UniProtKB/TrEMBL annotation:
<comment type="similarity">
    <text>Belongs to the cytochrome P450 family.</text>
</comment>
<protein>
    <recommendedName>
        <fullName>Cytochrome P450</fullName>
    </recommendedName>
</protein>
<dbReference type="InterPro" id="IPR001128">
    <property type="entry name" value="Cyt_P450"/>
</dbReference>
<dbReference type="GO" id="GO:0005506">
    <property type="term" value="F:iron ion binding"/>
</dbReference>
<dbReference type="GO" id="GO:0020037">
    <property type="term" value="F:heme binding"/>
</dbReference>
<keyword id="KW-0479">Metal-binding</keyword>
<keyword id="KW-0492">Microsome</keyword>
<keyword id="KW-0560">Oxidoreductase</keyword>
<dbReference type="GO" id="GO:0005789">
    <property type="term" value="C:endoplasmic reticulum membrane"/>
</dbReference>
<dbReference type="GO" id="GO:0004497">
    <property type="term" value="F:monooxygenase activity"/>
</dbReference>
<feature type="transmembrane region" description="Helical">
    <location>
        <begin position="45"/>
        <end position="65"/>
    </location>
</feature>
<keyword id="KW-0503">Monooxygenase</keyword>
<keyword id="KW-1133">Transmembrane helix</keyword>
<keyword id="KW-0812">Transmembrane</keyword>
<keyword id="KW-0256">Endoplasmic reticulum</keyword>
<keyword id="KW-0472">Membrane</keyword>
<dbReference type="Pfam" id="PF00067">
    <property type="entry name" value="p450"/>
</dbReference>
Length: 310
């Protein structure tokens, strides 16, 4: 064979109808003898086709991502000018500020009763007028009760959250949750929170000069939630690697995975549903359930032991 000649290999995918009307896929390898000149021409053609395909894909993606950007303009509503693919949230997505600070700055700088923003490619409206807010939260609340957050049916921990649940189930859950926040229950929680506050005060005195405010707040929040919600002494201030605190880190500390999943749940629920993303680490939730069950089992065993002692 001539040195300049060689074989190009192509794989053909052949779909055939079988007797039971099912599709059968066959792979066939085809050898085509070419020379260097033909191959160079084919390579140039492939590159041109690839560039054309990439340009077409980019154009279609651009058109899709900007399809809603005239939403507020058509309705004569003032809006923050969006950037293709990113919307109005560039400072937030670039991590220069938080979403709360960004909305606060917009709220203070735009002197209008309401204005529009774009979260990626979706239009949202920010209400400033107290009268409009009253209508939305009171008079017309039935039309605005649903949140945009994804409520996955397969994860009861997330879907049964009062801030995520959709109507009409949200109303039923609110009725069930209301007794938890009566004045009597809140008063009963105060001594528990006060105990954690005393532990915080003691911890600060013992660790002056080497305190990290974020971790300090996390320890306090963990112990308050553990005591008030689960009747558990988490001991985050006494034990450096308290188990309940470690579980909390796994659930809430920022990782690329957690950040993307939780952002998608709030901003792009359709993506979260399509990609089967989990709001929390499933293994961490299982560990939390196991820890709570085991903790209360041991506490019941201790109480039985004390009764036998008497």
């Amino acid at each position: 064979m001539d040195v300049a000649s060689y074989f190009s290999v192509f794989i053909l995918i052949i779909i055939e109808d079988t007797q039971d009307n099912l599709k059968k896929v066959k792979f066939q390898v085809v050898f085509i003898k070419t020379n260097s000149r033909n191959m160079a021409e084919m390579s140039s053609l492939w590159i041109a086709e690839f560039i054309l395909l990439l340009a077409t894909f980019t154009f279609l993606l651009y058109k899709y991502s900007t399809r809603n950007y005239d939403y507020f303009k058509k309705r004569n509503v003032y809006f923050v000018k969006p950037i293709p693919f990113l919307g109005s949230m560039v400072p937030v997505l670039s991590m220069k500020t938080t979403i709360g600070e960004w909305l606060r700055d917009l709220y203070n700088s735009i002197d209008r009763p309401y204005f529009g923003i774009f979260v990626l490619d979706d239009p949202y409206i920010v209400i400033k007028s107290p009268d409009l807010i009253k209508h939305i939260l009171v008079k017309d609340f039935s039309k605005f009760s649903d949140r945009n957050v994804l409520a996955p049916d397969h994860n009861e921990v997330v879907s049964n959250n009062l801030f995520i649940k959709k109507s009409p189930e949200w109303k039923k859950l609110r009725i069930r949750m209301s007794p938890v926040f009566t004045s009597g229950k809140l008063k009963a929680m105060f001594p528990l929170m006060n105990d954690v506050g005393l532990e915080l005060k003691k911890y600060v005195k013992e660790h002056l000069g080497k305190l990290e405010s974020k971790e300090l707040s996390a320890k306090f929040s963990t112990d308050v939630i553990a005591k008030c919600a689960f009747a558990i002494n988490a001991n985050s201030f006494q034990l450096e690697n308290a188990e309940f605190r470690q579980i909390g880190r796994t659930l809430f500390d920022f990782t690329i995975r957690n950040g993307f999943s939780q952002t998608a749940y709030f901003l792009k629920p359709g993506w979260a549903r399509a990609l089967h993303l989990e709001f929390f680490n499933i293994q961490a939730l299982k560990t939390l359930k196991k820890y709570i069950s085991e903790y209360h089992r041991k506490e019941r065993a201790k109480q039985c032991q004390r009764k036998r002692s008497y």
